[in-house]
Design brief:
Strands 6-7-8-3-9-10 form a six-stranded mixed beta sheet, with helices on both faces. A four-stranded antiparallel beta sheet has the order 2-1-4-5, with helices on one face. The protein contains seven helices and ten strands. Helix 3 crosses helix 4. Strand 7, helix 6 and strand 8 form a beta-alpha-beta unit. The chain has a domain of 65 residues.
Length: 222
């Protein structure tokens, strides 16, 4: 599903963010990505979503070589990668329903199908009763659940999450990780960047550790 082959990412203003990263993540795998702040976790996820491109190296997602992907095909690639952010990035002037519906609207999905898929996604994250609320009326945990629903509503085969529990207390963090496990059980590939090493240690999944832009540990790699 995800393959990095000797990938480097360098920024002119702050140097190398990723150095010689090679890894493979199988379809349906759940993987945690850990490391200190500035280790390169967010950069790696941004490369997967084609929010940025590598300076060197090859990245393949679902067999597609991202280097050869033309600009006009990038939106189609992103439809297959659900992205979840720590800061939620919800539109404050739209309801929960409308926030989750946004990816489907961009894809041109019909009105009835949007309603069915959005409500199914909200039901999965336990927020069906809040579909008409605005983000400001939600707790931090509820806002993160809306972000998750938005990321999975288009049924992408791959979901990446950048510190999705960074602002949540331990109980809420555990609930969010349990949601990710549900998606994993139905075959979604998940890559979750997190600082929550205590929770990661209690879960039976592969962990990739970055330090200074290098992959220094892989608990179950190829």
């Amino acid at each position: 599903m995800v393959e990095f082959e000797r990938v480097f990412k360098r920024y002119p203003e702050r140097g190398e963010a990723l150095s010689d990263i090679s890894l493979r993540i199988a379809p349906g795998e759940l993987v945690f990505l850990t490391g200190h702040s500035g280790a390169g976790k967010s950069t790696l996820l941004r490369l997967i979503g084609l929010l940025e491109r590598p300076s060197r190296g090859q990245i393949r997602i679902g067999g597609r070589d991202l280097a050869s992907l033309k600009r006009g095909r990038i939106p189609y690639h992103r439809r297959e990668v659900g992205m979840i952010f720590q800061d939620h990035r919800l539109l404050p002037d739209r309801s929960v329903f409308d926030n989750v519906a946004l990816p489907l609207e961009v894809m041109g999905v019909g009105h009835k199908e949007i309603g069915r898929r959005v409500r199914a996604a909200l039901d999965q994250v336990g927020l069906l009763a809040r579909e008409r609320a605005t983000p400001v009326a939600l707790s931090g945990g509820e806002q993160q659940r809306v972000g998750i629903a938005r990321a999975v509503v288009a049924r992408p085969p791959l979901v990446v999450a950048d510190e999705p529990t960074g602002n949540l207390d331990p109980d809420l963090s555990r609930e969010i990780f349990e949601l990710f496990e549900r998606f994993h059980y139905v075959g979604v590939t998940l890559i979750i960047a997190t600082h929550d090493l205590g929770l990661v240690a209690k879960m039976p999944y592969r962990t990739l550790t970055l330090s200074e832009g290098r992959l220094v540990n892989d608990s179950g790699g190829w």
